[in-house]
């Protein structure tokens, strides 16, 4: 093959056969294993195309000679560092929930009876900002690599946590939470990395561990946020602490800094095109140069270069002697084109993406995440509010109850969910997750109170016992639904995305 005839940015097709999740190509009968050579002729076509690109001596081609009943070994080292990234980030993000209602009630702008409204505003600022930039971070990770995007998201988030510990007003809290959502797209990028370092034969097993990490973060985060709140000054217990929520935020930021260091050292770039890119430090420097030019008053040089490339050759010749605004070769080297033109073979057509079943999956996944995030936001408000609308729990009690949900997440994911999914399949597990949220929302208003009146007009101690039993039951149902549904949804979305990339 003549290498000079191909652009260095041309994407190579993966040597792992991809399968269509919803139609066209029948899925394998045994879940998680590649199709046999005789089961689908399209598999031969993908293999033949890949041989043309890679050759029989390529290590990825040798992977095809593996027995079809044998799954690829899991990349444990890279999975471990991705687990550290997810754990540190989930710990930090989950540490806010236990104290956020109490924190919002101290803001001078917040009326005592409307704490829930303002907590919702703070949480919505984070969610809306993340929604606005998730596509950008995914797009950017395709241009400069997964690792620099993860590093930037981790460092920016650590700075936001330090700032959140010092907020004193509602406006400050909303701004910091919005910045935290704008500057972090790591959850989607980590899932993308996990999908890129695995294949169909071991992907189900790999994605099973991701909710386990979220469960660990669901334990450590609420414990940090619930138990480290300091209403009294730690150096003078007789005085009130002006920043009672600083300590959990500083610890969360410290964890993210450790995460940043470990990621810098151990995480390998999973984007295949990264081998054609400049070194990591230069990519990050080029990115900030690009952003600086994008916000400056002069016309960015990368736009001028693209305009120059778009002109016909005879116009280039006529304007060569009179053009003064084209960048020099040195400038072009410093300021890269972060919007490279993809090869035509890699352009995704809308008819492949906007398929009926794929759209249904995305719509239902939106409903699933809406239910999950709504429950996670509403439960601390419900638990902290005074009776009768709430249950009067403190930040420490809310944190411990959420830690219980994290323990349930791990136990269910490790001991039960894999067997259930093997029997039901991903689609039915996803459906059961959606149904579980309906049940959890119905059960929550029937949770009792800490104290109940006895027959003699006093208060019975059994009320607090039943309160925890009922809260534990609701969180159990909700957690099982979230874990099962999230794992199945991630697998379905990952398979659908890879199938789209494989069609042309």
Protein model, in words:
By secondary structure, the chain is mainly alpha-helical. The protein has two domains: 76-276 and 345-502, Up-down Bundle (Growth Hormone, Chain: A), CATH 1.20.1250; 280-318 and 325-335, no CATH class. 64% of the residues lie in helices and 2% in strands. Strand 3 and strand 4 (459-460) form a beta hairpin. Helix 5 crosses helix 16, helix 9 (203-227) runs antiparallel to helix 10 and helix 16 (356-384) packs antiparallel against helix 19. It is globular, with a radius of gyration of 26 Å. The model is unreliable at 1-68, 313-346 and 454-459 (pLDDT under 50).
List keywords for this structure.
single chain, 2 domains, two-stranded antiparallel sheet, 19 helices, 4 strands
Given as residue ranges, the uncertain stretches (5+ residues, pLDDT < 50) are 1-68, 313-346, 454-459
Structural class: mainly alpha
Main beta sheet:
2 strands, antiparallel
Overall structural domain count: 2
CATH architecture of the largest domain: Up-down Bundle
> What is the number of helical segments per DSSP (H or I, 4+ residues)?
19
Number of strands: 4
- The CATH class of the largest domain is Mainly Alpha
Roughly what percent helix?
Answer: 55-70%
Label the overall shape: globular
Radius of gyration: 26 Å
Distance between the termini: 22 Å
Oligomeric status: single chain
What name does the CATH topology of the largest domain carry? Growth Hormone, Chain: A
Q: Mean of the pLDDT scores? A: 75
Identify the strand order in the major beta sheet: 1-2
What's the SSE pattern? Answer: HHHHHHHHHEEHHHHHHHHHEEH
Q: Proportion of β residues? A: under 5%
CATH superfamily of the largest domain, by name, is MFS general substrate transporter like domains
């Amino acid at each position: 093959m003549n290498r000079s005839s191909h652009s260095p940015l041309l994407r190579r097709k993966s040597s792992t056969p991809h399968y269509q999740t919803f139609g066209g190509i029948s899925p394998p009968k045994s879940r998680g294993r590649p199709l046999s050579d005789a089961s689908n002729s399209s598999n031969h076509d993908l293999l033949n195309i890949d041989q043309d690109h890679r050759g029989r001596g390529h290590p990825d081609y040798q992977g095809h000679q593996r027995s079809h009943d044998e799954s690829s070994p899991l990349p444990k080292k890279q999975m471990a560092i991705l687990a550290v990234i997810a754990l540190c980030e989930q710990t930090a993000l989950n540490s806010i929930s236990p104290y956020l209602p109490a924190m919002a009630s101290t803001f001078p702008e917040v009326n005592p009876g409307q704490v829930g409204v303002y907590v919702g505003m703070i949480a919505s600022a984070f969610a809306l900002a993340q929604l606005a930039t998730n596509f950008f971070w995914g797009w950017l990770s395709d241009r400069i690599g997964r690792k620099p995007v993860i590093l930037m998201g981790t460092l920016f988030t650590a700075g936001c946590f330090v700032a959140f510990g010092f907020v004193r007003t509602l406006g400050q809290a909303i701004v910091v939470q919005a910045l935290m959502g704008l500057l972090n797209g790591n959850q989607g990028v980590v899932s993308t990395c996990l999908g890129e370092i695995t294949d169909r034969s071991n992907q189900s097993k790999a994605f099973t561990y991701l909710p386990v990490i979220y469960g660990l973060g669901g334990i450590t985060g609420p414990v940090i946020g619930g138990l480290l709140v300091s209403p009294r000054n730690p150096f003078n217990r007789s005085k009130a602490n002006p920043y009672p929520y600083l300590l959990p935020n500083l610890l969360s930021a410290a964890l993210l800094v450790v995460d940043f260091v470990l990621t810098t050292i151990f995480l390998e770039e999973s984007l295949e095109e990264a081998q054609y890119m400049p070194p990591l430090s230069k990519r990050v420097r080029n990115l900030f140069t690009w952003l600086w030019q994008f916000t400056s008053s002069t016309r960015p040089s990368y736009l001028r270069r693209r305009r120059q490339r778009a002109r016909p050759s005879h116009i280039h010749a006529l304007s060569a002697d009179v053009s003064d605004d084209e960048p020099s070769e040195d400038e072009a080297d410093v300021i890269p084109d972060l919007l490279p033109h993809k090869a035509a073979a890699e352009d995704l057509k809308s008819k492949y993406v906007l398929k009926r079943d794929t759209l249904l999956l995305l719509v239902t996944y939106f409903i699933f995440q809406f239910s999950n995030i709504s429950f996670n936001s509403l439960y601390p408000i419900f638990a902290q509010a005074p009776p009768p609308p709430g249950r009067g729990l403190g930040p420490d009690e809310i944190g411990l109850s959420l830690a219980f949900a994290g323990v349930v997440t791990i136990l269910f994911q490790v001991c039960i969910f894999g067997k259930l999914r093997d029997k039901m399949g991903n689609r039915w597990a996803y459906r059961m997750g959606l149904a579980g949220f309906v049940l959890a929302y119905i059960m929550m208003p029937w949770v009792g109170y800490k104290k109940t009146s006895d027959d003699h007009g006093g208060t019975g101690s059994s009320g607090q016992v039943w309160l925890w039993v009922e809260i534990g039951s609701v969180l159990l149902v909700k957690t099982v639904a979230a874990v099962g549904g999230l794992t199945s949804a991630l697998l379905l979305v990952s398979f659908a995305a890879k199938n789209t990339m494989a069609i042309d």
